[in-house]
Amino acid sequence: SAVISQKPSRDICQRGTSLTIQCQVDSQVTMMFWYRQQPGQSLTLIATANQGSEATYESGFVIDKFPISRPNLTFSTLTVSNMSPEDSSIYLCSVRSGTGVLAKNIQYFGAGTRLSVL
Amino acid sequence: DAKTTQPPSMDCAEGRAANLPCNHSTISGNEYVYWYRQIHSQGPQYIIHGLKNNETNEMASLIITEDRKSSTLILPHATLRDTAVYYCIVGGGNNDMRFGAGTRLTVKP
User: Fold this and answer.
1) Pairing mode, if any, of strands B9-13 and B103-108?
2) Inter-chain residue contact A111 with B43, CB threshold 8 Å
3) For the segment A36-62, what is each residue's pLDDT rounded down to a tens digit?
4) Which terminal Cβ of chain B has fewer Cβ within 10 Å, N or C?
């Protein structure tokens, strides 16, 4: 399986500020995703991070609020912009690869970033 | 929207088999059935997946009905460390994973 490192693991932020979460994978992957898990809830897909092009966002999520970068096949960032207390959640990076050492069609998840907004 | 239906919670005695059901009556022919679990405060962990045939690995067994409309995840000898939320997901190919509410399994001593 993939080793996925997310930074920071947790943070406490003030309302109105922005936080950038980093996701680093130990091998090249074709697909990278960002999920949100609100307290006591299941995971919701935010967007697919596309290498070399703009991310594909799910309904209810917009680029201005959650800008995403993916400069190469092993790294992506998610920014939570202009934060409010409603953004307090766990944000998870997930990867899938159709080739290489990772099994096809299996998604692997990072440990997540626990964000609290005051 | 999630394509699966799972009971919200289940209990299992330690050392006994845990059988977690999942209904996926709208599954299409090229979609796989995946199972993940999430132990408190951790990211989801892959358990097993299958298309048509039953599958077994070191963690669990997956039984898929012949019509593929439902499946059962079997943990043969549940331990306290298997207490987690278990998610059944249908998808695969180029499709991302969409999570439903899952089943909260509590293994009791």
Assistant:
1) parallel
2) yes
3) 999 999 999 999 998 888 899 999 999
4) N
